[in-house]
From TrEMBL:
InterPro entries hit by this protein: Methyltransf_16, SAM-dependent_MTases_sf
PANTHER family tied to this protein: HEPATOCELLULAR CARCINOMA-ASSOCIATED ANTIGEN, PROTEIN-LYSINE METHYLTRANSFERASE METTL21C
Keywords per UniProt: Methyltransferase, S-adenosyl-L-methionine, Transferase
GO terms assigned for molecular function: methyltransferase activity
Name of the protein described by the UniProt record: MT21C methyltransferase
Pfam families, per the entry: Methyltransf_16 (PF10294)
A single BP term in Gene Ontology: methylation
Transmembrane stretches, start-end: none
Species, as recorded: Turnix velox
Length: 222
C-alpha cells in the first residue's frame, strides 16, 4: 500500500536557453549554481530525463525536510549526473553510479560542474544493477543516508535486478530511497507494486504534466 498525500508540482523551466553551437549541451540553474550538462544521443543514460529535473527541483526546495549536508548519497543510474551534481551543491558526499558505457560522459559532467566548488568532490563508480553488489559495495563498509534514483524504470529487462539493488542498499536501518519516475507503461506500475511489497513507500509529489511521481521509501523491518 502506497501512503501519502502528494503535493502537485510543475517541473520549472530551470534550464537557461542558450545560443550555442552545440545541440548537446543543456544549461540549468539549481541552488544558485549554473550547471552545464553534456548529453550524448548514443545512450539512454546520457540524456536528462524529467525525473532528474523533478527530484533536483524537489531537493532544492525541501532542504529542511531532506537536509543533504554532509550526508552520504548514492545515485543509481546517474546518467548525465545532473542530480548528483545538485546533491553535491546541497552539501552531500555523493557517489554517482551507472553502467560502464555511461561513465565517461558522467565523469566529465560531474568534474566540470564541481571543480570550482568547495563541496565534497563526488565519486563516480561503475554499478551494474544486481551484479557484484556485496563485492563492490560491502555493507560492512558502505552505508548511505540516501539512495537516489530517477527514471530508472522503463522498458528494460533489468527491473528485478534494479529492485534487488534498491533493496540491497536500503537494507541498513536509516537509509531512505528517493525515486522519481515518469509513469507510462503498465510495467512501471507493476514495478511500483513490487517495490511496495518490500518497502514502506510514501508518495511525496506528483508532476502531472510530465507524468512524474516522486516517492520516498524505506525497507520494511523483517
Amino acid at each position: 500500500p502506497l501512503t501519502g498525500s502528494p503535493v502537485t508540482l510543475k517541473i520549472l523551466q530551470n534550464w537557461v536557453p542558450r545560443v550555442s553551437h552545440y545541440f548537446d549541451k543543456e544549461h540549468y540553474t539549481y541552488a544558485g549554481h549554473q550547471i552545464v550538462i553534456q548529453e550524448s544521443i548514443e545512450h539512454y543514460g546520457a540524456v536528462v530525463w524529467p525525473g532528474a529535473l523533478a527530484l533536483s527541483q524537489y531537493l532544492e526546495s525541501n532542504q529542511e525536510q531532506f537536509n543533504l549536508k554532509d550526508k552520504k548519497v548514492l545515485e543509481i543510474g546517474a546518467g548525465t549526473g545532473l542530480l548528483s551534481i545538485v546533491a553535491c551543491i546541497l552539501g552531500a558526499y555523493v557517489t554517482a553510479t551507472d553502467m560502464p558505457e555511461v561513465l565517461e560522459n558522467l565523469s566529465y559532467n560531474i568534474s566540470k560542474n564541481t571543480q570550482h566548488m568547495n563541496a565534497h568532490k563526488p565519486e563516480v563508480r561503475k554499478l551494474v544493477w544486481g551484479e557484484g553488489l556485496s563485492e563492490d559495495f560491502p555493507l560492512s563498509t558502505y552505508h548511505y543516508d540516501f539512495i537516489l534514483a530517477t527514471d530508472v524504470v522503463y522498458h528494460h529487462t533489468a527491473l528485478d535486478s534494479l529492485l534487488e539493488t534498491m533493496a540491497y542498499f536500503c537494507s541498513k536501518p536509516g537509509t531512505v530511497l528517493l525515486w522519481a519516475n515518469k509513469f507510462r507503461f503498465s510495467t512501471d506500475y507493476e514495478f511500483l507494486d513490487k517495490l511496495c511489497n518490500i518497502f514502506n513507500a510514501t508518495i511525496l509529489a506528483e508532476f502531472p504534466e510530465a507524468n512524474v511521481k516522486l516517492l520516498k521509501a524505506t525497507a520494511r523491518k523483517n
